[in-house]
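Field notebook, page 149. I keep forgetting to write these up properly, so this time I am using the form the group agreed on. The chain and the ligand, coenzyme A, are recorded exactly as supplied. Prediction of the bound pose follows.
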Amino acid sequence: MPMLITNLLPVEIEFLSPLYDLSINLRDKILREPLGLQFNADELSKEDSDYHLGILHKGDLIACLVLTPKSKSVIKMRQVAVLESLQGQGIGRILVEYSESFSKAKGYEKIELNARENAIPFYKKLAYSTEGDFFEEVTIVHQKMNKNL
Ligand SMILES: CC(C)(COP(=O)(O)OP(=O)(O)OC[C@H]1O[C@@H](n2cnc3c(N)ncnc32)[C@H](O)[C@@H]1OP(=O)(O)O)[C@@H](O)C(=O)NCCC(=O)NCCS
C-alpha cells in the first residue's frame, strides 16, 4: 500500500523519559487493553537495559517497539504497536526496518520475536521466517520468527 502520511520521524526513546511514558500508554492501548491486561511496575522495571524505538508524527508517538539483547549477536523484538487508526499504512514496516538498521549498527546479527498469530503475515512480508510450533503467551497464540540481519 502507498504511504499515506508523511513527516514520520523514527527515534530512540530514553527509558523513563516523558516519551517512554507515551510509549507505555500506546503499548497498553494496542497490546494489553484488548486482552484485559495491564503493565505492572515490576515488568517495566526490567526494561532499563532494553532499547526503545518509536515513530513521531507531528509530535505524537504513533508507533513503538522494544529491543531486548539476548546475546552478543541476537536481539529480541517485542511489543510492536502502531496506533490503531494508522495501521495498514506502512508505519509498522518503517519502524521494523529502522529497528533492523539500528540493531545491525550495534553489531547484532539476528532478530528473533514471538509473533502474535494475527501479525505473522506482517512479519512474513518483512522477510521474517517462522520457527517451530504455535504456543500460547498472554492468552493468545504465537509463533517464533526470526531474521538474519
Ligand atoms: C502488526 C502491526 C505492527 C503492523 O503494522 P502496520 O503499520 O499496520 O503494517 P504495515 O502497514 O507497515 O504493513 C506492512 C506490510 O505488511 C502487510 N500486513 C500488515 N498486517 C497484515 C496482516 N494482518 N495480514 C496480511 N498482511 C499484513 C501490509 O499489507 C504491508 O504489505 P505491503 O508492504 O505489501 O503493502 C500493527 O498492525 C499493529 O500494531 N497491530 C496490533 C498489535 C500487534 O498485533 N502487534 C504485533 C505483536 S507481535
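OBSERVATIONS:
- The chain has a mean pLDDT of 94.
- Strands lie at 8-13, 51-57, 60-69, 74-82, 110-116, 129-137, 140-148.
FOLLOW-UP: compare against the apo run.
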